[in-house]
Design brief:
This protein has helices spanning 2-9, 16-20, 186-191, and strands at residues 27-29, 35-37, 56-62, 65-71, 79-87, 90-102, 105-114, 127-135, 138-141, 144-149, 152-160, 166-175, 201-204, 211-212, 214-218, 224-229, 231-232, 241-247, 254-259, 269-276, 282-289, 305-315, 318-327, 330-345. With 346 residues, it is mainly β. The strands form four sheets. A ten-stranded antiparallel beta barrel has the order 3-4-5-6-7-8-9-10-11-12. The chain has a ten-stranded antiparallel β-barrel with strand order 13-15-16-18-19-20-21-22-23-24. Strands 1-2 form a two-stranded antiparallel sheet.
Length: 346
């Protein structure tokens, strides 16, 4: 257990301002209103909650005709939508749309069909748009921007021309009456961080109770959790990691930000989210930004950031966890891939 966690904790840093600038990833304009993703490793963290405002029926104009797009609420971790274009009173083409998780971020996938349902793409192919930037009323995928203005929404799409240049096309929608997504009660959002209460206390491996791996405690007013990791008992000021877990008012997610203050990984940064699952498991998904290339695990993967995921299963004063990182398009075990802890003090 300790080699795995020590290896992980020794990997984290960069100034704290870089952590808080969630939109400051490598990106550049593709057209006036669309962005290009320069590196897959720089996609921002996001969940289905961030795009829930899309749910409902939208109607408008674009491509020289009438357009309609309909999105259903998240189910099974994804959102499904449909699109159709009508020109001259007849269907022109359809799209099947999918929003799905991708390593702590999101990807927008599209499959096109002619009016007779013959597919445009090959049988197993689709068009994918990785996430580049996300704001309260704007979702920017690579070459595709969705911008909300009240009950209106404009989609900007970058389309490559034969000469290699990009031309911007816009589709203008208005939400159809009665199709707004149900609002989540404010009380339910505010109480969500209470779901992390089972983590309160200090946690150590059974073989070394003086080694504190996790230390969770409430801040004043129970508005956030203080998190410290990787220190010897009685010396919390020497923690390898120090951070906060709090409810993000912008989107209702449980946010996690921290910086490595001591040890080999001094200055490296964590940025991620917690999710409390219905079965009681707690998931922590986060990005680590590294200070030097020599510190980055899997240097051949390129970039200065890596994504990690831990899933905690708690039974009383015992915690078992899986530890993974995002590599080659999927989650894979990091180090030994699992560890177990006991609560030393609540």
């Amino acid at each position: 257990m300790r080699p795995t966690m020590t290896r992980l904790l020794s990997h984290f840093a960069v100034p704290i301002l870089a952590l808080l600038a969630t939109s400051g990833f490598a990106q550049r304009p593709l057209t006036t209103n669309t962005l290009s993703l320069d590196s897959p490793s720089t996609t921002p963290r996001a969940t289905m909650d961030d795009v829930a405002w899309l749910v409902g029926r939208w109607r408008g104009t674009g491509f020289g005709g009438e357009v309609e797009e309909t999105w259903g609420p998240a189910l099974g971790g994804t959102m499904i939508g449909t699109f159709r274009l009508v020109r001259g009173g007849k269907p022109d083409f359809y799209e099947l749309l999918v929003l799905e998780p991708a390593g702590g971020s999101l990807t927008y996938k599209v499959k096109h069909f002619h009016a007779d349902l013959r597919g445009w793409e090959a049988k197993d192919a689709c068009v994918s748009f990785p996430l580049v930037r996300i704001r309260k009323n704007e979702i920017c995928f690579h070459g595709l921007t969705l911008r909300r203005e009240g009950d209106a929404c404009v989609h900007y799409l970058a389309m490559r021309q034969k000469d290699g240049k990009q031309r911007e096309v816009s589709l203008r929608y208005v939400r159809a009456g009665g199709s707004a997504p149900p609002a989540e009660p404010a009380a339910a959002r505010a109480a969500s961080i209470e779901g992390l209460a089972p983590l309160l206390g200090t946690w150590s491996p059974e073989a070394d109770k003086e080694h504190i791996v996790h230390d969770y405690s409430w801040t004043v007013g129970r508005q956030a959790l203080r998190l410290r990791e990787g220190y010897r008992a009685g010396r919390p000021e020497a923690a390898q990691l120090d951070g906060l877990v709090f409810l993000d008012p912008a989107n209702g997610t449980i946010r996690f930000v921290a910086v490595a203050g001591h040890g080999k990984g001094q200055g490296r940064v964590f940025d991620g989210t917690y999710t409390v699952h219905g079965d009681g498991r707690i998931e922590r998904t986060y990005r680590v930004t590294y200070r030097t290339l020599a510190d980055v695990p899997g240097e051949q993967l390129g970039g200065m950031t890596r994504r990690y995921r831990e899933v905690y299963t708690l039974a009383g004063n015992r915690l078992s966890a899986t530890l993974e990182w995002w590599r080659d398009g999927r989650w894979q075990p990091f180090g030994r891939g699992t560890y177990a802890l006991e609560r030393r003090r609540s």
